[in-house]
């Protein structure tokens, strides 16, 4: 009977100790035994041969920042601006001469500004007269089949556009409405401002259905084919 009591006491003591351990674990938080803990380590930055730190390829933030970074070398969108009318001086120069019933001259636009600028495409051209710059007849037809490169003009450089002028006397007077011209109003490509190019001795047709003028695109001086 005495041995049986001792056994019961021993079992009770062991059970109490086990309960104490379990109570301590539950009251101390959610600590996980070290043997079962899983840790994902972030790779440390490597060092380049120059001694500066280089981002690890495993770090996704390094690739994101490189994509979001600046334009880098050569990424500037800048360049010469389009030539403004105020920076250009126009003149009429000899062209190929043309055929019977018309003549081909070169409309020359010279960069008289202080900086480099560009021209690309077809100028707007029309006769003006009356001493007040009033337009006479239809504006020049633009020959879209002509080459139209971007022409870069440094200060003092010139671009030319071949301009065909049909002789007014080719039309019946009623179909033309002949009128003496003072020269041309010229709009550089893409510009809403114009310049006046004087050229006297020409006769325009005031009837708009009489197509007297046609113009090709601007090209560097010396490169016009007509």
Looking at this protein, list some descriptive labels.
single chain, 226 residues, alpha+beta, six-stranded mixed beta sheet, four-stranded antiparallel beta sheet, 3 helices
What does this structure look like?
- The chain has 226 residues and is of the alpha+beta class.
- The chain contains three helices and 15 strands.
- It has helices spanning 2-27, 60-68, 173-176; strands at residues 46-47, 53-54, 81-82, 88-94, 102-111, 117-120, 124-129, 134-136, 141-142, 150-153, 158-166, 178-187, 195-205, 213-215, 219-220.
- The strands form four sheets. Strands 4, 5, 9, 11, 14 and 15 form a six-stranded mixed β-sheet that branches. A four-stranded antiparallel β-sheet has the order 8-7-12-13. The protein has a three-stranded mixed β-sheet with strand order 3-6-10, with no helix packed on it.
- The model is unreliable at 1-76 (pLDDT under 50).
> What value does the average pLDDT take?
76
User: Mind describing the biggest β-sheet?
Assistant: 6 strands, mixed
**Total number of β-strand segments?**
15
N/C terminus separation:
133 Å
Q: Tell me the helix content.
A: 10-25%
List the helices and strands in order. HEEHEEEEEEEEEHEEEE
Count of helical segments?
3
Low-confidence stretches: 1-76
* Rg, Å, rounded: 43 Å
Structural class: alpha+beta
Share in β-strands: 25-35%
> What is the 3D form?
globular
